[in-house]
Sequence to fold (528 residues):
Amino acid sequence: MYKVIVVDDETWICELIRKIVDWEAAGFQIIADVQEGQYALELIEQQKPDLVITDIRMPGLDGISLIKSVREKDIDTEFIIISGYSDFEYAQSAVYNNVLGYLLKPISKEDLEKILEKAKKQIRYKQMLHDKIEASATYMLEHDIWKIIDRTETNVLADNFNERYNTNFADGKFRIAIFKIDSDQKNTSENSNTNQFPSFLANIKEKYKDLFEEFIIISNDFNDRAIALFNYNEKKLAEIESSFRNVIVSFNSSADIGNSELTIGLGCETSNLGDIGKSYDSAVNAVKARISMGTGRVIDANKEAGLQPLKTVIDARNEKKLATLFDVFNTDGAADEISKILETSEREYPNSHLAYNNAACEVIKILFSVMQRKGLELEEGFSLEKAIQIIDDCSTKEQIKEAIYRMARDFSSEYAKLKQSSGSQIINEIKAFVAENYMKDIGLEDVAKLVCLNPTYVSEIFKKNKGENFSEFLIGYRIGIAKELLKDVRYKIVDVSNMVGYKDAKYFSRLFKEKVGVNPTNYRKLYV
Fold:
């Protein structure tokens, strides 16, 4: 967990920040909220938090002065500023290079979550550097190049890299190359692994070094993929292209590599180091195109057409049909439909080398969307992004189809387990009942009658499955509806109270403040 201190002289703002997002789920822990800048400075010196969220205007030591004081003490803490519209220009100009970002009042859940994600990435990045404190110039160079690739850094000069890292970048062209190994799926013995890949790459770098102004391997994972940035004089382009073809031949004929095959995706060339993100994107697409063009070859984005990803491949009617088949767990019917969709994609987009891959990824997105609505997931950490990576790692169309079928079957198995698990059907019935009757005077006895069980037993099942008792769930559900209704000025507070099942508006207001951190009136002010 990353440590956070909140600094604001208005207590209710601190409470709102505590309540408005799930900090634990976001990977943060608020260790203190402070109402005075000088005390905040002392606490920051003691606790060394990863992140400080501070108001810009406070009595005594204001937000700007607090940040300057922390910087002077050389404490490595990220800052997010809270400011009103009237303060924003002042805050932006005063601390442009010292803060991670700004939260404008009224603070919204979406804005806070977005900037926390940015903060987490920044903190994680810094900690990664600290963990690798041996911090060789090579390591730092690789990560600075990645910052260019992912567009974190945009104003980049090759001369600055040469001065900082003793590299040899020169005028000419810059490109990204991706080396992708595909292993024989039928042979998974240790003889067919790619343990020799790092030394193979080192050898080719040494062998062909005279062809390049600079050649830097920037991948951290040599299991089946490596990424390189190279800089060259256009006069040597023909020799370089020939060398990459020779690398393919050398790798695929090597006895040390076993049952593996190498494909090289060459990104488009750029004239500036700062534009290599474009080359990287096209190199990724070139590697994906091996599904259509075949593995064991060089795929050059400068020469091949049809490497642009398609926006949408699947027809809306086919998408609806497939979603329905997934929804009812008709895996056989879904398999037939998936096969038709994938085959149709190539016929309808004959000039695209990415149509099959695009269609496969769209199928995966449909599958995950349906399962998410059902509340189903596979093992922890198995996300949509990971599923798409599995598709990208496949080297044949059959492997792609089998990977999708397997995921659909796995979700079906999870659903079967859920149905068999104790209380799952009861919980679903109760949740549906609450969704239809939350505005009425209902309680545990009512839902117990619904499922024809003893209230005590129902309470135990609910607690076991949901991690909270029924009354807490009901309150949370009602408060969630109330928060949306409060955003509509047509409804008075008393109306909202009645609409979510509370006849006593004063009790509703107390309960709302307890759960949300602010009373209904102040909550409405945040959105109206």
The chain has four domains: 2-131, 139-300, 316-420, 424-525. The beta strands are 2-7, 28-34, 51-55, 78-83, 101-104, 173-183, 214-217, 225-232, 260-266, 298-300.
